[in-house]
Amino acid sequence: MKSNNGMIGKSIPRIGAIERLLGKPLFSADMELDHPLVLKVLPSDRHHARILDIDTAEAARVEGVVEIFTAEDIPRNHLTGIINKDRPLLAKNKVRSKGDAVALVAALNIHAAETAAKKIHVVYEDLPSVHDPEEALKNHASKVHEKGNLLFTRKIKKGNPEKAFEACAVVVEKTYRTSFLEHTYLEPDAGAGYLDPDGNLVIIASTQNPHYDHSELVSLLGVAPEKVRIVQAATGGGFGSKLDLNVQGFIGLALYHLKRPVMCTFTREETYRMTAKRHPLKMVFKTGADENGHLMAMTAKMICDTGAYGSYGLAVASRAPVHATGPYEIDHVDVECRCVYTNNPFAGAMRGFGVPQAAFAHESQMDLLAEALGMDPLEIRRVNALKAGHKTATGQLLNGSVGIDQCLEAVKPHYENALKTWLHGETDFAKQRGVGLGAMWYGIGNTGVQNPSTAHIEMDGEGRITLYTGCADIGQGSTTVLSQIAAAVLGISPDMLCMVVGDTAFTSNAGATSASRQTYISGNAVKNAAEKLADVLLTEGVDLLKRPKTDLMLENGFVVYKKDPDHRMPFSKIAARAAKRGIPLRWQGYFDPETVPLDPETGEGVPYATYAFACHVALVTVDVLTGEVTVHKIIAAHDVGRAIHPASVEGQIRGGAAMGVGFALMEEYDPSTTRSLKDYHIPTAMDMPEIIPIIIESSEPTGPFGAKGVGEPALIPTAPAVINGITNAVSARIYHLPANLERVLEASIQSGKFTMKEVA
Amino acid sequence: MDTYSVIPIRFTLNGDKVSIEAGAHETALTVIRERLSLKGTKEGCGMGECGACTILVDGKSVNACLMAAPQLEGRTVMTVEGLGREGKLHPLQEAFLEHHGVQCGFCTPGLLMSAQSLILETPRPTHKQVVEAISGNLCRCTGYQQIVDAIQYGADKTGGEE
């Protein structure tokens, strides 16, 4: 029953792909309800201010306005947040950033809602605002929250780095900075809600975590859990932002009071203004190695700006320091990361939770050390790469899948060939070529905390099987992968399974689609449920086929005697008999990876049960006169444990690399100037190079069929590889992302490349 | 914006004659999505930056969010709903399926329209022509490569028919 009937490792057509190609699935803004009211949020126009009065009288007189809500109208708890409950659905007494929601208009049409929102008069008393996390930690700084501006500190300590630095042949200390980023999924946030015939609140949402949305709505509205149903709509990407409550709370509030169908669709500008951003980090890294390039010690001081609210800041401030060593063994480590409130837009989860930022620093350090020692950048990574039997900075003994060596080995021929030939190829005037490497590791699942998944599988009396999962497929393809896992265990083809996904009335909690956890954790939960059902089918088969259980298997909807495949019994007969005899045919699966919470002072513990590994090589061309960078090719080797659906793994790698190119070269959200897609540039087809994915399968013993994850790892090595490539091209390093035209040109001038070519 | 003058508009949509009245301030996108309930055409930004609302107007790709509804008068319009159907996908749709060019699927209808516009003009486009033709269609999931491959492959299959 552990057999894999060819379903694992096969790129079957994606569930839902044909419908998407026909334009059929309803995304959350596409819902058709009976004369729905439309909702409009009035955001704060102050960074930090007391609310003295909200006068809605004039707005309420606008024709078509039905109701205007403020914080007073929230029935129970007005604060939201998955880790820290600190973000009000509607501002109470004060606002902490320009994106804070102050009031909510419900109207018959969008014109009335927009007109009314403009006529709400809010009297503010401005408070001093703080926009820099280091300033925010000073004594005199204005307090964003009563409890103070320091939200959280994570420390990782191992050995004695200060002493170890003394014995190093080379020590490099540098400061790195990254910017706010916007997820910029193609579908802006939207949702719809209505009352079902029993008076229950049904909310159709674009979300990464329907079961969390459910608990948050219950908390906001103070209603019984069974009175709220969250249904995940077709979801147009998420990348972390749809882990927070974006529109669901507004829909719930209006529905609760008005008991009429409602819709809330953010414009792109509203999505940019009111949803989470990627945390900007400032990171001071000090790394030392011996004369052979062995890493001896590292320290890092990191500070991340979580803006006005915590959101996933705590997770970011844990992940970044835990991963600060990179995929390397270092005996002496001291890392501290502080997460700080400011009056900037709130920062939350974004693909990688701080690890992309940390990787920019640790991979830049690796190249700086290699340069100081006269070593090849690939060689210094190979010398230090983690192996099974090594201990991480948190003291975790790695004993499962550790595929970084294989990733480095896989890129080696591409890397060496690029250095030997491509690097020296003829280029246009003022163009310089460079080759760069970036490696990473990434813990699968949440950091040192429980993060279980559950799933249910059910066979009806006629032998039809339905899989119920709360796992939100946001485009990455988890529904297809989970169907393959269940099908492999049950010996059927995935299209024989009925899938019920992301509907709190029918599914149980699978946790968030985040932390690259769904294939590993929900995959295991689904496998667990399927195995329980499979065991019942085999046990029943013993009775019916009169053969020992060990000689039976499941194949194409039958229990089959292995030695004589014609001696078999269809699932339908077994199901009918089991139903009569009261044998259960609905089973729950459960999986929670084994972790050990991190010690608050030393960080000692087991943050993750398993890690993904990767290495990218980037071939870049820099125009030394304009600062323009062209990425020519990326070779991306990823240890995913086992690729259950290889084409989806490749899709994640290519999409991740695209986001990595954006992070490296162009993406920057400036809270004071970025309003829309006109101001925020993500890579287009013309910006993207050829990406060559290489799938490494270092099987993980605890993974479903050996699988780990790839969603976030795909993005992480790209920016460091591109930055190291730029450095290789212009002989000057960039320490602040993105490496936009100005920064690259400045680097070109600093290194003398600009002058040289200009003279030539 | 406050003037609600209503204009009668007649055009052909996915092969059918359509006759409606639309406000002068409305866009082709709102007519298609709200009036005619064809939700395959998406709105990603409302300012012509993302390409999710791409439709074909007389065979050329257009951002429906930037086109005034009255400009539809007398035109022949195609949306994703007119490209293929269940059981008989258009070769481009087949190619997207085979090449795994769909992830979240929000950008897919717009990309199909841009690709179709390209193929109508250039039955066998080069890689560079494909990339240029879809450069106004943002996709945040795929990194574009599987989409570009699909369009080239789909063009090969459709090319001969044009």
Gap between N and C termini of chain A, in Å?
A: 71 Å
- In sequence order, what are the helices and strands of chain B, one letter per element? EEHEEEHHHH
**Uncertain segments of chain A of ≥5 residues (pLDDT<50)?**
none
What is the count of distinct domains of chain B?
Answer: 2
How big is the Rg of chain B?
A: 16 Å
Q: How many beta strands in the DSSP annotation of chain A?
A: 30
Largest sheet descriptor of chain B: 5 strands, mixed
Structural class of chain A: alpha+beta
**What would the average pLDDT of chain A be, to the nearest integer?**
97
What's the end-to-end separation of chain B, in Å? Answer: 43 Å
The CATH C-level class name of the largest domain in chain B: Alpha Beta
Low-pLDDT residue intervals, each spanning 5 or more residues of chain B: none
Cα shape of chain A: globular
Percent strand of chain B equals 15-25%
Q: Under CATH, the topology of the largest domain in chain A is which?
A: Aldehyde Oxidoreductase, domain 4
Q: Any idea what the CATH superfamily of the largest domain in chain B is called? A: Beta-grasp domain
Q: In DSSP terms, counting alpha (H) and pi (I) runs of 4 or more, how many helices of chain A?
A: 19
- Please indicate the percent range of residues of chain A in DSSP E strands (runs of 2 or more): 15-25%
CATH topology of the largest domain in chain B: Ubiquitin-like (UB roll)
